[in-house]
Amino acid sequence: MEFTRNNNRQLLSKVATNDRHGENTPYFEGWKAYDSNPFHPTQNPQGVIQMGLAENQLCFDLIEKWLLENPDASICTAEGVDRFRDIAIFQDYHGLKEFREGVAKLMGRVGGNRVKFDPNRIVMSGGATGANETVMFCLADPGDAFLVPSPYYAAFARDLGWRTGLEIVPVDCKSSNNFRITRVALEEAYEEAQRSNINVKGVIIANPSNPLGTVLDKETMRSLVSFINDKSIHLVCDEIYAATVFGSPRFISVAEIIQDMDCNRDLIHIVYSLSKDMGLPGFRVGIVYSFNDCVMNCARKMSSFGLVSSQTQFLLAAMLNDEEFVGNFLRESSKRLAKRHHVFTKGLERIGISTLKSNAGLFFWMDMRPLLKEQTVQAEIELWRVIINKVKLNVSPGSSFQCSEPGWFRVCFANMDDETVQVALERIREFVHQGKEEDGASEKSKHWRKQNLRLSFSSSRLYNESLMSPHMISPHSPIPQSPLVRART
Amino acid sequence: MGLLSRKVTCNSHGQDSSYFLGWQEYEKNPYDEVKNPKGIIQMGLAENQLSFDLLESWLAKNPEAASFKRDGQSIFKELALFQDYHGLPAFKKALVDFMSEIRGNKVTFDTNNIVLTAGATSANETLMFCLAEKGDAFLLPTPYYPGFDRDLKWRTGAEIVPIVCTSSNGFKITESALEEAYQEAQRRNLRVKGVLVTNPSNPLGTTMTRTELDLLVNFISDKEIHLISDEIYAGTVFSSPAFISIMEVLKDRKLESSQVWERVHVVYSLSKDLGLPGFRVGAIYSNDPIVVAAATKMSSFGLVSSQTQFLLSAMLSDKKFTKEYLSKNHKRLQKRQNKLVSGLEKAGISCLESNAGLFCWVDMRHLLSSNTFEAEMELWKRIVYDVKLNISPGSSCHCTEPGWFRVCFANMSEDTLKLAMQRLKSFVSSITINNQSHQELKNTRRKNRNKWVFRLSFQSFHDREQEER
Fold first, then answer.
1. What does pTM read for this prediction?
2. How far away is chain A from the Cα of B259, in angstroms, using its nearest Cα?
3. Which of chain A's residues have a Cβ under 8 Å away from the Cβ of B271?
4. Is A241 a catalytic residue?
5. A175-179, long-range: CB < 8 A, 24+ apart
6. CA gap B82, B66 in Å, rounded
7. Which residues of A380-395 are buried (b: 16+ CB within 10 A; e: fewer)?
8. What confidence score (pLDDT) does residue B7 get?
9. Which of A160, A40, A96 is nearest to A314 (CA)?
């Protein structure tokens, strides 16, 4: 069979046999560790806690209550079955009118009701995964490239480039300015690409950002729009975390930005989904909203490859058109996310670990640079392995998001219950405390002291930087309290 | 340098074809028994609307499946979060069992070899992404489902080369046709990666004979290429001969350990057999673990909604239900097909003898003014606009002989079918009378009509194109 297998391999496409799906990266190691030993409060309290999955599990009770109160939203219940056959037959790629209306209303609401979205421009896709790929198929040809500010969602490599044949050109953002996307960085990346004969067709951003958990400010947004407009390239805004904003500043959709800007609207495209905002990734609801008619029409034809199940469209149409429910849901969700975020970030602060100041997303961007043996990706991966295998937390290393600075980790906080949160914090506390204890032991202490010297040097640099830029890491920087830097010998 | 990709501006999505034009016309003037009795009757939609009552009655007896409950417990949260591309295990098990049942349990399927996709549309495209790329071609017997042009070629860059089948032998696949197609691909500098067949056939409504299947196995063995068997109509076989799946043939010929085993792939769906096209349930079944692995990853771009997987896992696990459903559904399909065939007969129209599918392959060659595709288009326009029946012209299915039409029978009530047959009969009678008196005017009129016909058929109707099989 071996010979046959190899022979048969030649008969498959390049796409089927190459690695551009990205699943052979170390990123997935953490997953394996979790899968083989998953935490359970009673059945496996020593297991690995999953903090690498950006899921929103905080508001299911609200949805379940709504479902109980609205049995006619299901085409399978006695109350809703009279719609069964019409819906079961419905495969029109325009999508159910009520579904599109509900989604358009939600998108408008999430954008602070400053923009009205047109239900007739709503195009379905197989989750945001399908939406991003479809948009790429519409905007670029094999060999073309898109600029992507780093750090960025790990699976963009697959979604944007695997079957499409596109290339990603990262635009490195730095912690020195809170990873903001600068015009300078964009211009540089663009010029560099031109010099290498790479045909850049556009820029894609996630706003709010994954993995940073931050929203883009108006100035940055305007600068982006102006940049792509000047170069006549596309701007794709992945706004799937828009409703996970739980504090100020508010979320500003690109749709709002272009309302008061002179810009070629044919270049602007939005990707949306219900997987994060509503916590329904299993329902595969992806949306392409393009201001370009050709793209909209093409994406609509392509949606045949990933339509949303009509059963699901029907259910969600009812839910999203219940404006009272939606309003209440969004408010409650923000509240709970804020609370959870606060518990974690404050808890970490007390241990001496800082995080990037954020107000959105289902995760925070944790700064573990002080704990690295050296500022390299290898050291980051080493630390990560320790966190997975010893601390037993599956967090995601910054390198998997193509972050140009080692030492950052994305930690998800909305996919577990309150008790698990405490267990996770306790484990981190212990880990950091252990480091402190080893600090006192003989043989190792020299090593640690050396470390601390290096660390205290780098932390003080950070501290200085924090004085210079007001919106730095966290105004409550734990540096003075961190046990890792206390010993100064 | 174009602003958009080539895919946006090319025509490979195939939606400018006449096939979708009839749709347009139907949409503008749809028949309704009460509200619009003179409207166009839709006979171009291969949907199974005959057995919803069976599904609805199952739903009434199984309220848990409807309300995200299992054994009294709510599993809403688990389902809402479930996006594992390996699919819901209970659903996959139920699905493979169902597939087996349809094949008389002569073959069994392994859940490890099945990949769930958003409809057969996605399954076919995904399989093509795995097996072919630009410069490659798949051979397909004509006539074939018009949507294949989009599903197999559009975003993958692969090509289709036809295996020409003709009425001389009931459109069966012959060895010479296979060879000729292969040579044609070579002439076009295309590398042949495989053959794709639809069995039971769309648009023919026939099941493949064992001879044809053996021929295919020998051919792909010899050429060392793939075979995709799109078996989405497998559950619609309503009379003999019995359906023979390609898997059954491989098993009978003891080819499980052969080289060819891993090059045979099956596509399935619940859109036709269960009449649930809206739910987007498709599947790829492959004996090649590399294909399964790659297709599984690709399914991320079009997973089946977990809500739907859950509902259907409960439904298909109910073996009492599936047995009753398949049996009743077959009877109803057979009865309805018979009504269409006899109705056509009364109008002096014959069709290819068929035992499956949701349509018949109708022979209207004798109604053509000439043995040309222009004449076919002429006839088709008259049937759509004058007779007010939307049927699908053979040319849209890449048939090489003018005069054949696909007519669906399972997507309307019995009364509507009756009415459609009456209209057709009247039309045929009128042609027979008129043909004699208008012979002289034909040549001049044809010239003008052709201009009109060509303009219409090449016009693209971008705003209301739709899905169909």
1. 0.89
2. 6
3. 91
4. no
5. A175/A356, A175/A367, A175/A405, A175/A408, A175/A473, A176/A465, A176/A469, A177/A469, A178/A214, A178/A356, A178/A357, A178/A469, A178/A471, A178/A472, A178/A473, A179/A151, A179/A209, A179/A212, A179/A214, A179/A356, A179/A365
6. 17
7. bbebbeebbeebbbbb
8. 82
9. A96
Q: Which of A276, A287, A351, A439 is catalytic?
A: A276
Query: Which residues in chain A have their CB less than 8 angstroms from residue B226's CB?
Result: 11
Q: Which of B31, B144, B145, B268 is catalytic?
A: B145
How far is it, in rounded angstroms, from Cα A101 to Cα A321?
8
CB contact under 8 A, B311 and A76: yes
Considering only CA atoms, which of A195, A185, A190 is closest in space to residue A169?
A: A190
A283 and B150 in contact by Cβ < 8 A? no
Chain A CA closest to residue B117:
A306
Torsion-angle region of B209 (φ positive above 0: left; ψ -120 to 50: alpha; else: beta):
beta
Please tell me which residue of chain B has the smallest CA distance to A276. Answer: B81
3-state helix vs strand vs coil in chain A, percent to 5: 50, 15, 35
Across the interface, which of B49, B119, B301 has its CB nearest the CB of A133?
B301
Q: Do A11 and B193 touch (CB under 8 A)?
A: yes
User: What are the CA-CA distances from residue A430 to residues A41, A254, A393, A413, A437 (Å)?
Assistant: 18, 43, 13, 19, 10
Q: Are B398 and B369 in contact (CB under 8 A)?
A: no
Q: Chain B window 309-328: which residues touch A at a Cβ cutoff of 8 Å?
A: 311
Cβ-based neighbours of B253, under 8 Å, separated by 6 or more = B214, B217
A318-322: long-range pairs with CB below 8 Å, 24+: A318/A70, A318/A72, A318/A73, A318/A98, A318/A102, A319/A63, A319/A66, A319/A70, A319/A73, A319/A102, A320/A99, A320/A102, A320/A103, A320/A105, A320/A106, A321/A98, A321/A101, A321/A102, A321/A105, A322/A66, A322/A70
Q: Which of B102, B163, B220, B232 is catalytic?
A: B232
Residues A268/A229, Cβ–Cβ less than 8 Å: no
pLDDT score of A136 more than 60: yes
CA distance A93 to A431: 52
Inspect the interface and report whether the beta carbons of A21 and B131 lie closer than 8 Å. Answer: no
For residues B356 and B203, the answer to whether their CB atoms sit within 8 Å is no
pLDDT in single tens digits along all 469 residues of chain B = 468 888 887 666 666 666 677 888 898 999 999 999 999 999 999 999 999 999 999 999 998 887 888 888 999 999 999 999 999 999 999 999 999 999 999 999 999 999 999 999 999 999 999 999 999 999 999 999 999 999 999 999 999 999 999 999 999 999 999 999 999 999 999 999 999 999 999 999 999 999 999 999 999 999 999 999 999 999 999 999 999 999 999 999 999 999 999 999 999 999 999 999 999 999 999 999 999 999 999 999 999 999 999 999 999 999 999 999 999 999 999 999 999 999 999 999 999 999 999 999 999 999 999 999 999 999 999 999 999 999 999 999 999 999 999 999 999 999 999 999 999 999 999 987 776 555 556 666 666 665 554 444 444 333 334 444 5
What is the DSSP annotation of A47-70? Answer: SBEE-S-----TTHHHHHHHHHH-
Task: Report d(CA B362, CA B392) in Å as an integer.
Answer: 10
pLDDT on residue A468: 30
